[in-house]
Amino acid sequence: METIYTIPLNEVFDADDGGCPFCSLDAKLEANTLEYVLGAAMMEPDVRQSLNKSGFCAGHLEKLFGMKNKLALSLILETRSLSLIENIELLAEKDCFICKRIRTERSRYMSNALHMWEKTPAFRVKFENNRSMCTAHASDLLKTAKVKLRKKDYITFKATIATAFAERLKNQAQNSRTFADSFDYRNSGEKINGNFMKKAGDLI
Predict the structure, then answer these.
(1) pTM of the complete model beyond 0.85
(2) Cα gap 63→193, rounded to integer Å
(3) What residues contact 65, with CB distance under 8 A and at least 6 apart?
(4) For residue 96, which of 27, 28, 57, 155 is within the disulfide window of CB 3.0 to 4.6 Å?
(5) Measured between alpha carbons, how far is 165 from 153 in angstroms, rounded to an integer?
């Protein structure tokens, strides 16, 4: 049965658009949270208190300034500033409200993805066929899996991630070797492999 957390996961894995499915989820989470901050959050006293305490990181503040509801943003920044006047130590506790909310939701999606991988054969097939997951999200999944899955299931899951990255890692190793070899005096005049400069950071 589809739920509020399984539907988004199935959607991003079904899309198969060549990008990391969890990056797509992060983008949706960020967009929804930005809209929430300048919308419904204004009517929730406990959320406003959290906003007064947390504030925003520079990146998310810039994105908020680029949105339409600047009245809501001005009111949020007013009360945040007044809160800092009353207690400057809040600066030391700063943890961007939007970043924190995304981290919390991402953690849930990671746990749900592992549960679906473990319990739902159809999702496991989609997961195992995906070759576009980024290393940052694969790292998060492995860390979560080590805690959430039984040892034998973790071993199988780890093998799935290894298989998904095998071809890309081999290509990166080859591109790195080709680039390094171009500095060998015996290869003087050889054209440097541009793929290394474009792709070397993709998997680290």
Answers:
(1) no
(2) 37
(3) 73
(4) 57
(5) 19
